[in-house]
Amino acid sequence: MPIRSAAHSGLDDTRLSLRPGDALVVVDVQRDFLPGGALGVPDGDRVVPALNRCIALFGRLKLPVVFTRDWHPADHCSFRAQGGPWPPHCVAGSDGAAFAAGLTVPDDASIVSKATTAQADAYSGFQRTGLGELLRGLGCKRLFIGGLATDYCVLATVRDAIGEGFAAVVLRDAIRAVNVHPGDGERAERDMAEAGAELVGTDLLAGDAA
Ligand SMILES: [Zn+2]
Predict the structure, then answer these.
(1) 98: left (phi over 0), alpha (psi -120 to 50) or beta
(2) Where in the chain are the domains?
(3) Most Cβ neighbours (<10 Å): which of 52, 108, 168, 178?
(4) Which neighbouring-strand residues pair with 108?
(5) For domain 18-179+195-206, which CATH number applies: 3.50.50.60, 3.40.630.30, 3.40.50.850, 3.90.1170.30?
């Protein structure tokens, strides 16, 4: 599996230079998905510092940053009261649906809301959101993807990104898994690599190239 990290290699030539056509996609870093939230991901808050570093880097390079968010009606089909698998979470406009308190959301970032109707759920940020068109309109070709959770919305977003023709780079230290079944997160990482994604540590991202 092609996983690289400067911490492991110690080599400068493994660094990933960002370039025009790159974009950062931050998946569902919302309060309900953090520890203590309605659907808390273990260590979910740990993705925030790594993502903030990436957000700052992409901002400095004037590369697009897109945030996806779960944005459900109160009677959403994924909630247990409606026969779904999850407790109520990320109800549109609620505190739990807000982005993590420490997450940097730049004024010029794009925010994409998903699963906004009662009848349909969406793990992927590309599902009925127009995200693909948005990114193509911005000239994006390669997406750097991090957020929550590895084994659900990150996995689905990465698969769809590749399906829509984007190159996908998964920010391995900026994702965390739910692990409903032990090993789900590791399986998801393997699935993403097999689908063609590259998995890298955020320490490899470099903005010094032309
Ligand atoms: Zn949801």
Answers:
(1) beta
(2) 18-179+195-206
(3) 168
(4) none
(5) 3.40.50.850
Q: Is 28 a catalytic residue?
A: yes
Q: What is the pLDDT of residues 57-75, one digit of tens each?
A: 999 999 999 999 999 999 9
36 torsion bin: left (phi>0), alpha (psi -120 to 50), beta (else) = left
What digits encode the pLDDT tens for the residues 141-199? 999 999 999 999 999 999 999 999 999 999 999 999 999 999 999 999 999 999 999 99
62 labelled catalytic: no
CA angle, 120 as apex, 188 and 137 as ends, to 5°?
A: 75
Q: Determine which one of 22, 28, 70, 173 is catalytic.
A: 28
Query: How many angstroms separate the alpha carbon of residue 33 from the centre of ligand 1?
Result: 10
Cα of 114 vs centre of ligand 1, distance in Å, is 8
CA 134 – ligand 1 centroid, Å: 22
